[in-house]
Amino acid sequence: MNQIAAIIERAEDGTYSVYCKDEIFSGMGKTIDEAKSDMVRQMTVYKETALKEGFRYPDFLDEEYVIEYTVDALSLMNYYVKAGIFSLASLEKITGINQKQLWAYTTGTKPRKAQADKIRSGFLRLSKDLDSVFA
């Protein structure tokens, strides 16, 4: 089965984009799920158009494939805060960054690399904890 690598990012306007690392496909949406769905729809439309018009398209579209998504930690944090899944208080506990600073990051302030690394590390620790529960 083919694995297609895709990146998810939060845009400055609060929407999300997803794009394939090594392919031409991308999508946009108000949420991560909408962006993913948009990209998959674009892939389907592209193949259908190629078949109808007689031009080439990537071979993997004829086979089974899975899309492996990667999201940066800041986009993930923004998504979960806006969705009401995480509060700033819970993220403070996970990341060690105070709520006021986290709020600034969710409203557009770009964190320094050290702070972005703390957010990423916090999510990685949480992920390991969750993986151990479901192992």
Quick overview:
The protein is α+β, with helices and mostly antiparallel strands and 135 residues long. The chain contains five helices and four strands, in the order βββαβαααα.
Description:
The protein has helices at 32-53, 73-82, 88-95, 99-106, 113-133, and strands at 2-10, 16-20, 26-29, 65-71. It is α+β, with helices and mostly antiparallel strands. A four-stranded mixed β-sheet has the order 3-2-1-4. A hairpin with a 5-residue loop joins β2 and β3. The protein is elongated and about 55 Å long. The two termini are 24 Å apart. The mean pLDDT is 91.
Topology (SSEs and partners):
Layout: E1 2-10, E2 16-20, E3 26-29, H1 32-53, E4 65-71, H2 73-82, H3 88-95, H4 99-106, H5 113-133
Parallel strand pairs: 1-4
Antiparallel strand pairs: 1-2, 2-3
Helix pairs in contact: 3-4
Give the total of beta strands. Answer: 4
Q: Helix fraction?
A: 40-55%
**Percentage of residues in strands:** 15-25%
User: Strand count, sense and closure of the main sheet?
Assistant: 4 strands, mixed
Count helical runs: 5
Q: Supply the helix-strand structural class.
A: alpha+beta
Approximate shape: elongated
Which whole number gives the mean pLDDT?
91
Unreliable residue stretches: none
Strand order of the largest sheet: 3-2-1-4
Query: What is the rounded Rg?
Result: 18 Å
State the separation between the terminal residues, measured CA to CA: 24 Å
Order of helices and strands: EEEHEHHHH
